[in-house]
Write a structure and sequence with these properties.
By secondary structure, this protein is of the alpha+beta class. 56% of the residues lie in helices and 17% in strands. It is built from 18 helices and 17 strands. The strands form 4 sheets. The protein has a 6-stranded antiparallel sheet with strand order 2-1-4-5-6-7. A 6-stranded mixed sheet has the order 8-14-15-3-16-17. The longest helix is centred in the middle third of the chain and has 67 residues, at 318-384. The chain is elongated and about 160 Å long. The two termini are 19 Å apart.
Length: 568
Amino acid sequence: MLAELSIKNFAIIDDLSVRFSDGLTAITGETGAGKSILINAVNLLLGARATPKMVRTGAKEAELEALFFVDSDSSAARFIAEQGDAPEDGLMVRRVISANNRHRVYINGRLSTMTALGEITASLASISGQHAHQGLLKEDVHLLVLDQFAGLVPLREKAEDLFNQTSEAMARLKRLEASKEQDAKERDLLYFQKDEIEKAAIQRNEDEDLEAEKKRLRNAEMLQQTLSGAVEVLYGGEGAVVDQLGMILKGMHQAADADSTLESFTAILEDKMFGLEDLASELRVHLDTIQMDDQRLEEVEDRLDFLSKLKRKYGGSLEAVDAFYRDIEKKLAKLQSASGDIQEARGLVNDLGAQLAKTVKDLSAKRARASAGFAKAVSRELESLGMGKTQFEVDLSFYPAPRNGDGPLCVDGHGVEAAGMDRAEFMIAPNVGEELRPLKDIASGGELSRVVLALKVILAKTDAVKTVIFDEVDAGIGGAVADAVGEKLMALSGSHQVICITHLPQIARFAARHLNITKRVSGGRTQSLLTPLDGPARVDEIARMLAGGNITETSRQHALELLESTVN
């Protein structure tokens, strides 16, 4: 339950603190005094979005703080224990709303996030105001209310999870299949490129070797003339260098016999002469390899031209061509595995689709069984709220089949959405003799308020929320109906903490605790104040509500009679 609420620098509230108790608490006050500000503050502490405009004029930031006492077996209690705190000490939620749009959230004194705040406060309190009334006109809300009544929310969440998984798997399969044709074109190109490179049978450094060979072939005549001339001069012709060195060597041997110091020179000369003989021999052998072959030159040039085209096509060098080839092999392997991915994805879609179909059919059958009991429960509550002749039914229908009429999101010829295959619409006939018509087409403001209250009472039996806040529950009602609404709120307060903002004395009189919110001007600033009422002060407030502000002894007496006739 909500135990304490503190508000600072929020809208027209300067500094306000209030303690709440269990049972029914009524908050009353003149229009514009700030009752809606209290609702906004609690909404923010439950995770609603904040804006800098909420900060009181002239202040840098607004501070909102609430203390909740939680049940020992609740999710909030588990969260508190996980944080190392004692659940029996309660849950303290604090929000700081900054004028520079830098807001902060604290849970039990620790900086936290909006996501965490929303999760932990989801089961702490619910607020039923104008938004709830308007929300009740939406068909998707009708289905959720039915599921809450029937205890089908876990099954509904399972269906939603399977729906999301199936939708994601179908989208992935569609992407894979859409790319299949493109993959086929890419595969054909890759195989062509692979075959082209393989047939080229490129050798390592082949382009460099061929360039050298081309150069030799183009200069074959010059090479032959140069080498043959060199051999002739060194060894083969008259007066060849080797012959002359032989004559010199012969003389050096004779000289060395006379002067032993010449022996080393003689050895050097002898070595050089033998070296020239070897050189001449090697030149002669190399000369035999040089041929003037125009056909071979043409072949070499053609091959170089082919290699040049390959290099331009696949990277600029033979090393790049080889790297491109290895990349082709990797891509082909990946494309091959993509075929397996499609089969795997199709299997996953079928598996998830089967689970989804089983779940939504089970959910649909349980909704159909629960709808009659739900309608009877609503009718009973409406009867106690002054709508005894009202007929109420739940019209269940199926989503139409998708256009393709098949697939996992079509079950038994019906379409499947996140909440299943059903649509629900509340049908109502407030007066005898009228046909049942959709709630959104017929209900007045007062009737809507009572339907909302009836649903709150019904769902309270299965709802984990312990604090229920009503704003504008008295819209469009009065007299005996207001008495009935007050009695219903008091009955609900037997199992829940109920906080009700009301303009009707017939409702406020049933409260175990009465708070009055007023507005005053102090120091040129408007302020809202919240004051607990008891005894004569409460009588005066009920009298004000009865008399419209003109409090008289008659209105006080009437107020006193109302309060004394109320059994809390």
